[in-house]
Amino acid sequence: MTSQPDTITIPIIGASIAGLTTAHSLLSHFTTTNNTTTNKGKGTKIKILLINPHPSFYWAIAAPRILTKPPAFTESQYLIPIADGFAKYSPDVFEFILGRATSLDFDKKLLNVEEVTTDTESTKKTTMREIKYDYLVIASGSTPSASSTEPLFPGEDGKNGEIYPFKLSPTSSTTITEAIKSAQTAISTAKRITVIGAGPIGVEIAGELGDLITPSSSSSSSEGEDKKEITLISSTPRILPTLKPSASETATSLLT
After folding, report:
1. CATH number of the domain encompassing residue 96
2. DSSP 49-109
3. Closest C-alpha among 56, 63, 62 to residue 165
4. Is the pTM above the cut of 0.70?
5. Of 22-36, 188-202, 214-228, which range is least confident?
6. Number of compact structural domains in the chain
7. How confident is residue 122, by pLDDT bands cut at 50, 70 and 90?
8. Has residue 85 got a pLDDT over 70?
9. In a domain, 150, yes or no
10. Over the stretch 140-162, which tens digit does the pLDDT of each residue have?
């Protein structure tokens, strides 16, 4: 009698574009929709453990418009529950772990995860979980140094300015929804906004912000309405430096 092959355990740290793509690709290769082994897998069984500190996938590519123009999207269009995308797979094949990796032993192939076991508005409980793995995928991406958990830049009159990165630190106690709504409110009421970096993202944000201060041809601004001053800072003589000069000139013309 041929014994069943051992299950290969593969934790994936991070459930953004890279982590989700890897998880779906592995599951598609080694299993069918009813969780039976495919011929491509040659009898190999796998268990995917997808680890992420937030339960939803944030479509950060749309962040410039999400943050500057709240009516442009509904929350369900840019915050998508991660587990729902894997609902067709059984727990024997796939598990979503809400939590964050805290330590790793490459020699012993051990991964420690702080898993969220209870997450409500009033209570958040975590427990440490040790995972023995065969292969490990690290798709956690990068975290901006200017995060909402750090001291804010000083503003005028002794008040603090605001910093809104495109994604939160894994250790942040703020949820993505809270951070987005806070940013939307701050941007809508700000008098001066500085965008640091004049690459594609910086220019796109400046353009979206510029739309907020462009006067409408059919109506005039009210006397009490706050006006916004948008500043784009570039470390190079022209914006979009990786593109040809004519593209930079066109972008500059559109922004000014």
Report:
1. 3.50.50.60
2. EEEESSSEEE-GGGHHHHHH-GGG--HHHHEEETGGGGTTS-TTTEEEEEEEEEEEETTTT
3. 63
4. yes
5. 214-228
6. 2
7. low
8. yes
9. no
10. 987 666 544 454 544 445 455 55
Based on the domain organization, do 93 and 192 belong to the same domain? no
Residue with tokens 């509904």, as numbered in its chain: 74
239-247, long-range: CB < 8 A, 24+ apart: 239/198, 239/202, 239/203, 240/198, 240/199, 240/200, 240/203, 241/198, 241/199, 242/199
Q: What is the CATH number of the domain that holds 237?
A: 3.50.50
pLDDT > 70? residue 5: no
Q: Residues 233, 198: contact at Cβ < 8 Å?
A: yes
Indicate if 215 and 109 belong to the same structural domain.
no
What domain range includes position 65? 7-138
* Conformation bin of residue 151: beta by default, left when phi > 0, alpha when psi is -120 to 50: beta
Quote the pLDDT of residue 144: 62
Q: Tell me what the mean pLDDT of segment 229-244 comes to.
A: 96
Q: Are residues 176 and 124 in the same domain?
A: no
Contact at 8 Å (CB) between 43 and 5? yes
Closest CA to 49 of 92, 105, 104, 88: 92
| CB within 8 Å of 86: residues ≥ 6 apart | 23, 27, 50, 94, 96
d(C-alpha 97, C-alpha 109), whole Å: 18
